[in-house]
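Same chain as my last thread, 286 residues:
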Amino acid sequence: MEIREILIFVGACIISYLLGGISIARIMTKKNGAEISGSGNPGTMNMLRTKGLAMGLFTLYCDALKGAIPALFGYLYFGHFVGSQMGYIALYAFGLCAVLGHIFPIYCKFKGGKGIATTFGMFMVADPICTVILFGIMFLTLYFIKIGSLVSLLFITIEAIVQLFRPVMTGNWIAKIIMWVIVTIDIWCHRQNILRLIENRENPADLQEGLKKDIAKLQNKRERKLEKNAIKQDKIENRYNKKIVKKETRVKSKIEKIHSKSSKKNTNATSELITTQNADSTQDND
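reply #2:
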């Protein structure tokens, strides 16, 4: 590679790390004026347990993109070096930087997630068909066993083993080493989960419970909307009633004024009539 490609490679590693450090889970949680509950980990499984299935899948999607985008750039840009196998080396190198950024984000005092979702995004670029099939199998497995950490560790381990036997990886020892470094880091980040698994006290990640939370959120949202609409309706009715009362008051006031004027006219007319009659009576007497 020329100096220009080396500089691009180094720059892409830095950008991949910075991209990996962006936590959508933290951003969304803080936007709603709260902190990440549960284990405090801004990852897919914790979001599934505490926020519901939708938030868990959304976190998975965003974290996977952080691994997929750098990996895809590395594969497409450096893949044109014929015979050098640089495409897959760059793919896994940038994926590694993104995973490190996710686990040790500079924005959050180097305290982040555990890297599985970002690794999943990287594998989606390396071998999309195998990754999608394996993800489907692991998703069904999670539905039945409800242990997210175990499913995650099984996924990346099986995926890495499958990648070793792909023809495109034959002889590409650098790419293989980088890939297994990523898997080893992911497993190391799950050391507490592994200990809890051994002691049979690992936190479950129930997809059905996550779905129930989403349904409850929708119901609460609907109820809040109905309450707001009822309050608005009451305000509109109160304003309308106030307007009606004001109009009725004005009409009554006008009627009273008319009656008052009419009464005064009648009184004046009566007084004039009496005065006239008295004058006529006086003239008759004279």
